[in-house]
Amino acid sequence: MDVRAQIVMAFHLDKCIGCHTCSLACKNIWSDRRGTEYMWWNNVETRPGVGYPKRWEDQERFRGGWKIDGKKVTLKSMPKGRTLANLFFQPNLPRIEDYYEPFDFDYGNLAGAPEGNDQPVAGALSQVSGEPIEQIKGSANWDDDLGGSTLYAEWDPNLPNRELVQKFDTIFMQYLPRICNHCLHPSCVASCPSRALYKRGEDGVVLVDQNTCRGWRFCVSACPYKKVYFNWKSGKAEKCIFCYPRVETGQVNACAQSCVGRIRFVGVVLYDADLVEAALLKKDAELVEAMRGLIMDPHDPQVQQSAARNGVSMQWLDAAKNSPIYALVKKFRVALPLHPEFRTLPMTWYIPSLAPVLSVLGDTHRLLDQGIIPKVENLRVPVQYLARLLAGGNGAVVEEVMQKLLALRTFMRGENLGKPADPEVLSRAGLDREAALQLYRLFTTAGFNERNVIPPQQREDQAPELRRKEAGFGILTRVKSERTDLTQRGGKDD
Ligand code: SF4
Ligand code: SF4
């Protein structure tokens, strides 16, 4: 047993209102500089939709993540021996059209335009060249709220049934907020020839050392989530840093702090690094269970001893015991990883959306009152869509989660209306009354400090062995502890 600590974010998709406050909070703090205009370390996508960059999930095209090669996992983007050949040309990088040409508006013209017969307008200017842009053709959320549009929905690589998009009245729409997943097996780290990317031993945050990065962009290709960006001004790679300067002082990430829907949870999990290699070799459909299996019970004395041997402090152990992430992922099994089949072992988890709960059988509230719970397959969100998004294609895993969420909704509706539901409703879904009340509290009335349990870092107190120890999987990841090297704000602002 080799137990290590990882800081993790979870998202309750039913509660996301698509307001993008999180994206703006992140951008204002971290990527408001020259060269970073098109970077959205946090972005919110409308689903079904194309995402950002467009169709990032299409690994046939982008070749990100890992593949199983016999009894090994290898990078899809970079088979051994091709590193040198691809050093100066990488065919799988997204193009600017896959992102968008960043723009601003010429607001000065509104007040400063010479007198004329026309109302002055603020035309669009390219933030790269400064030249006027005749027609804006895209942005980071160009298809925002257009999940019901056939134009965009049919470009979603996860949509199992293309006919569905033609039926406007039955299509569903939901939001998908995304940050870097700070993966346990990060392909970005493994791909870097300069060894500039690394995963911190103390909390698992994945960072780019700006002093070491040489701008080869292997990481941009290798990340299947396209969460590493190339700064065209500094010539270096940049990515979400999990707000480590905030987290190190016990504060929550800016995106989570600002989240209007209170959909985000932040906490610590303990995982067994000895189990990672076996988990990676599982079939796609088995990966969710394998990932749950990596997360250890923080109340188990053996787990605590192993973690302590690796330098995990008492504060972190206590945080792991009270972690909302442990509760959602492991205890109640309602949170799922985004595209586990990419095999980076992403450490962001999603509670899938039930909404809208109108089923083909009729209005859900009426069905609930009649004691008839709509079947999962009758929900407007197709199970196979969620399975492709969150479960390596395994519909049974999604159904188990959806059953729990439906049972919880039925049970709590009964409680709140003074018409208690049949206890069987919960037990059939693998819950009991106590679990339902705990989950309900987490989803609704839990305060800030219950949704976000972040221990302060005490790096100077940590055992030197931990700092040297590699986080994640074997030789593929690297850990550095020099605090001064961690900043990604090395590039100067203009
Ligand atoms: S591979 Fe994982 S850790 Fe690396 S940038 Fe992509 S999402 Fe982040
Ligand atoms: S701030 Fe919260 S509710 Fe608003 S888009 Fe972001 S994740 Fe969704």
UniProtKB/TrEMBL annotation:
InterPro entries: 4Fe4S_Fe-S-bd (IPR017896), Nitr_red_bet_C (IPR029263), NO3_Rdtase_bsu (IPR006547). It comes from the Bacteria. Its cofactor is [3Fe-4S] cluster; [4Fe-4S] cluster. Keywords: 3Fe-4S, 4Fe-4S, Electron transport, Iron, Iron-sulfur, Metal-binding, Repeat, Transport. This is Nitrate reductase subunit beta. Pfam families: Fer4_11, Nitr_red_bet_C. Residues 7-35, 171-202, 204-233 form the 4Fe-4S ferredoxin-type domain. PROSITE patterns: 4FE4S_FER_2. The gene is narH. It is found in: Cell envelope.
